[in-house]
Each structure stands twice: as structure tokens, then as C-alpha cells.
Design brief:
By secondary structure, this protein is mostly helical. It is 62% helix and 3% strand. It is globular and about 115 Å long.
Length: 632
Amino acid sequence: MKALWRLSVLCVLCTCVIARHRHDSQQRLRQVLQQRRQRIDTEVSEWLTTKNEELRRWLEKISFASWNYETDLSEENAEKLNKVNIDFSQWKSTCVREASEKLKFPGLSEDARHQLRILSYDIDPSNPEQLRKVNDIQTKLEQIYGRGTVEYNGTTLQLEPGITNLFESSRDPKVLSELWVKWRDATGKKMANLYTEFVELQNTGALEHGFEDLGDAWRQREFFDTPELVQIVEDLWQELRPMYVQLHSYVRRKLETYYAKNHPDFDFPKDGSIPAHLLGNMWAQEWNNIFDIVQPYPEVKEPDMNRALKEKGYNVGNMFRRAEEFYTSLGLYKMVPDFWRHSMLVRPTEKDREVQCHASAFDFYNNDTFRIKMCTEVNMNYFQTIHHEMGHIEYFMAYRHRPTVYREGANGGFHEAIGDTIALSVRSRKHLQTLGLLEDANVSDEEKKKSDINYLMNQALLKLAFLPFGYLVDKWRWRVFSGEITPDKYNEEWWKMRLEYQGVTSPVPRTNADFDPGAKFHVAANSQYIIYFASFLLQFQFYESMCQASGHTGPLYTCDFYRSKEAGEKLLNMLKLGGSKHWKEALKQMTGDTYIRTEPFKKYFQPLIDFLMNENKGDVGWAKAGINWERA
């Protein structure tokens, strides 16, 4: 019995010793793991700090080289830009490899993982010769576009302002057709073979880095963790297509009536399509320049905003100052001294200096250098563009305190939406009255209702008319990058999509010897375009949210949040996030939504849509139309 008792005591003692040993071992293991995690955290943190600073310096170099090239399209500047890009690619390849290895570390913080994912992104081919070709072709494509000119009436015209002004003002279908064709001959047609090789090389790089193709790489980089993006944008388009069809059908009938009366020799299509050269824009992406033809109530005199700007003494400089004052009235930033000293706000006068006039905003990544490049004219379109580009600058300044990898928008659509959100307020009747560009007329309720429909039509010609083009440019490229569209069908499929989505046809028969997508800057510059489609919806969500913050009551389209610090605070808090949070989280902070919604867009335009449906009476669409194609 004593032996049994001693054995029991011994067992208990052994159990206690084992338990204590196990406890001590577990504690030591926890300490080891904690120390290891701390070493990893320290290593990753120090590495990220170093790489963010190195990246900042590289982006500063690239920005200055890009600025120098785009404001002087010389061969010397092109070579300098290419060299910087190639040198950066070599640095980036090492950075990508190291970031990819560190992503495998256990226990990374959410922030560290997010930064590493951004730094591990790459689409450049690893072969140095292929990389050199990518940069060379990119430069050539941009040079072809930037140097594009058209001979007309014995004069050499550049896109801005010459050709653009004629598209805005001319109603002669022969003149417009001539300009339309010559611009595409001067640009896209010269790019066709280059673009085919460019796609092949870019896809090679994308495949090397684990993407299905360049389109997949683009979508994953611009919209992180949104694998359903293709379906999202298709669903959004299908929600809005009925609105577009109503606008298209109304505009078509107005144009048909106008040309039958004023140009009876012009054969307007009877199949429901609209000739693309008659819509007041080189790409038929915005139709506001034909407002005089399609105005719902022409008996209600609408002020000429372009004339009003000039009569009020506006020039390019004070248009920019007015835009700055709007942003500061919300509690946002003033432009830095460098902006006013070195921005290119008008086309340079030197005859031997070619520039890229496409409006752009530049962040030079040194916290005090931000600029805009554009060839501004005094008109309302440019006044809106100024607010758009300055919106980019405000975003740059708001997130400049972030690590370099986060010095970007929540997604590209956010960046494009900011200035346009402000422009919605700027274009409101209330704000135009504040600026003295519109008189506060004493009119009847009926006349005001008609005037509101006219106003919404003008806005729809800018916003609603753009949506199918904003969608199809990248949908076409996604199909090109995936191989679904082969080079021998580039142009044919382009026009099939232009017809399917926009309901427009070319003024003359086209062939696959043409390359009409290249006549658009963003194709030549290899810039994503789906971000603009997203931005045109996001801006109405942002606008609605800021209007609510400002205390606005009444129809959404009447809101002006000028001088509302509450609206500005809501916007600024989102801008300061930069790319540090998922775009859905940034959207939720700004609007309370976690997805892109069409409801604010519909709400804004609903009175006009009701008017259009009543006018069209079901006579809508272009189902019987075919592309204007030259058959062999």
C-alpha cells in the first residue's frame, strides 16, 4: 500500500515536472517566435522605408524627364526619358524580386503586406532587348500622336486648338469628314504595325509575372482584390444603357432634321446610327458642342458661356485662379509657387517647339513641385478641364505625407473623379450666378422647368454620352491583349464595338489598313481608360455625398457646395488616404457605400430622361445598323 502511495506521489511529481517543463518550453517557443516576428517586422519595416525613398527618387527623375519631353517633343528629350525608364526598370526588377520574397514571411502586418504587394507588381519583360523595344515603341507611338497635324485650306492644323475648334463650330459634313479622316491618317494609321509588336512585347512581360495577359495585369494593379471587375463594369453599363439609348435616339432625330434642312445633299443614315463626325468631337465621346442643334427648348434663351467668360474679362490665368479659389473655399490646398512659375498653361509660341497638348497633371514626388500641362483656351470646356486637372493636384498634395507606394488614388477612377466632382458644382446654375456668368432671371415656373431640361441636356451630352466610349476603349483592348481580337481584325472589331455600344458609324468606309483606335491619345500613350468610365459614376456618388454634407436641399442637379467646409472636410479626409486603403474602404468613408452605384447618376438626370422618353415614344435604338466597311 505504501509502495502504491509512493508511486502515486512520484507520478504526480513527474506530471508536475513535465507540465512545468512543457510550460517553460512553450514560453521559450513563444519568446523565440515573438523575437523572430520582431526581427521580421524590423527587417521589413526598414526595407520598406529604404525602398519607398528609393522609389520616390526614381519617380521624381521620371516625372521631370516626362515633363521635359512632353513640353518639348525633341529627340534628345525622348532619349533621356527612355534612359530613365530603362534604368528604373532595372532597379524595379530587383525591388520586385525582393518584395516577392518578403511577401512569403509569416505574420506580416496588413499594411506591410499591402505595400509589398504594390512593390512586387511588374509587367516589364525581363529580356533587356525586349524592354528597350517596349520603351522605344512607346515613345514612337506618343511622338506620332503628339506631332500629328492636318493640312486644311492651305493651313497646317494641330489637334489643339485648330482641329478641335473646327469640330466644335463647323456644321459642314464635308469639312468634318475631311478633318476626321486626315487626323486618323496622320496618327492611327501610322501606328498599326508598331502597336501589334507593342502588344506582343507587353503581353510577354505580363505572362512572365504571372498574369494572363496585359489586360489582366492592368485590372489587378488598378483595382486590387477586385477579380469581378469585368462583370462589375458590364453590369453598370447595362444599368445605364437604357438612358443612353434614349439620349442617342433623341440626338439622332434632331441631327437628321438639321442636316435634311441645312445640308440636303448629305445622306444621313436611315438605320438608326449616327455618323461619328457630326457629334462635335473628334472621337464622338462628348456631344456638348452640338447643343445648339439638339436643345430641347430653343425658345428658352440659354446664355453662351464661352462668350460670357470673355465678356467678364476672363483669361487663362484668372481661370486657373478661380479654380484654385473654389478648392480653397472648401478648405483644400492652394497651388504651390512652383505651379504658377513652371506649369505650361498655354501652347508655347516657339515655332520649332512641339508639345503634347493633352491636359495632364504632374506630381514630382518632392512635396513642393506640382504642375499642369495644357494648351488652354478661354471657353467653358477648358474651364471645366482646369478644375479636373487641379483636382489631381489637390489629391497629390493631400497624400504627399504617405509612403511613396501609397502616393496614388484609391484607384484610377478616384483620381479622375475628384476634379469632375468639383466641376459638377461649378457648372450648377447657382455657381454660375455666383461667378457672374449667369443672370438670376425672374422667370415663370414653366420657363424655369424648360431651362432646367436644357441644362440637364447639356450635362448629359458631356456625361451620359461619354459612358459607352469610356467602357469600350478598354473592353476593346482587353480583347486585343487576350488574343480574342487578332491584328488583322483590330479596326473591324473596333468599329463593331463603336456601333454596338455607341451607335455610331464612320463617315467613310474603313479597312483593316486603318488603325482608328490609335487616333485616341490614351491608346497611343498606353494609358488605361476604364478608370474614366468608373470616374463618371464615382463623381456623382462623391457629389451627392458632398451635397448632403453641405446641407443642400432640392434636386441634386441644383447643388453648389462652394464654400462648404463640411463638404471639403469629407472630401479631404478621403483624399489623404491615397492608396493606403482598398478602394471600397475609401469609397465607404466618402459615401457610405462599398460599391459603385448608378443611383446618384440616375437621380441627377431623371427629369431629362422622363422628357426624352416622352419625346422618343419608343422609337429608339439602332438594331438594323451595320458598320461602314470597305469590302474587298
